Amino acid sequence: MDVILSGILSVAANPLTIIFIFVGVAAGIIFGAIPGLTATMAITMFLPVTYTMSPIDGISTLVALYIGGISGGLISAILLNIPGTPSSVATCFDGRPLAIKGQAGKALGVGIVFSFIGTIFSIIALIIISPLLAKVAIKFGPYEYCALAVFSLSLVITLTGKDLIKGLMSAAIGAMIATVGLAPIDSVKRFTFGNVQLNAGFQLLVLLIGLFAISEVISTAESVNREEEFTIEQNVKIKGFGFSLSEFFSQIRNAIRSSIIGLVVGILPGIGGGISCMLSYTAAKNASKTPDKFGTGVIDGVVASETANNAGIGGAMIPLLTLGIPGDAATAMLLGGLMVHSVSPGPLIFDKNGVIVYGIFMAMIIASIAMLILELFGIKLFMNVLKVPKNYLLPLIVTLCVVGAFGNTNRPFDVVCVLIFGLVGFLLSKAKIPQIPLIMGFILGPIFELNLRRAAQLYVSEPGSLFQHPIALVFGAIAVLVIVFSLKKQVKA
Fold it and tell me: What's the predicted TM-score (pTM) here?
């Protein structure tokens, strides 16, 4: 008990630490809101700054950057249809239509509040059930990951709308793009055509910036001299959080479901918030009585996406702290930050560094509150983006995209790829081919391929070993059921 109290007071009773947390959250929000400048980059850039800090101050600052960076992606997703981070992809689907309807304030308010709820939910789970969840995650091997990828890919069918062929075509394109570069396990070059730059394949961030940002710029440029296509809220007065209490309570079930999805996906290393937000969005759409309204501007989609991606924060911290396994690139940088300050993650972390661990928990709670305060007070400021004339805004967006793409890997080649994917995204939108399955195919394709090859090797050495993995069998069975019911729905339609 003394350890817990000491950990809490090491953060809550130190005004300087709280200032560091607020500064970290503010910087994280800025990095998250600018396309290409992710939470990972924020942590990377500020990590050297923490070297001279005390362990609790330094780690608290990095955690604050992480939380602010994940949440900040909703700002550009809603206002510009550009996901600031990969985990905000699904926020664009309904957030942007709400902004076009003149309800940007409501969309931002909903996103901010439920981002906070998702984060707090995951922190509570992190504190209470981290040992149990860590034991489940550690049991995931090639069979489980392969089955999980199949299950997730099966959900692509539910995202295709009425045109199944176009949806599957889009997913196939995404999976094909993901095969470029060195093959997993044996590192055979594929589709590189002698270009050394292609050995590393295409970066997810580059694909997202191209498909969403550049394609949006091209589409918008077509009508830049025409009458504005959406209503700009003038002198808007936002009461409270921008939405009513009845709307809030109507989303409780959606928020709980999305929090659980985000938490579970966050725990699984290498999956990431990009998948959790889309899985949550899909689940919300399937559970809705009016699924056809999704994509036209309903708060349900914003709630699902933002709750899930922020719930993944606490989820990703569970294997990081208890097992020393980072769940994504951002937590990998946090792992480096912990080691810099002589904190060794693992099963013994509560015994060796209990005060710091509980200090981290307290820092995460304060960072969540700081995120809520800073973003809510900044709503009116954020909405001013909509008032900027398009002939000024579009070049600025392109510039930020180029900087973000280049800064991610310091490769001029990625800038070229962004422009190419932007053109591809524009052509797909003209052909009315959905982009969501493409992204899902790109993310899940490598996970499926890698673990399929590993599972095949295990099966050759141990025939029948598949039946010793009930978790994989459950995921596989659910995937089959999803496909069957989706096909029946398509046939009836």
Answer: 0.70
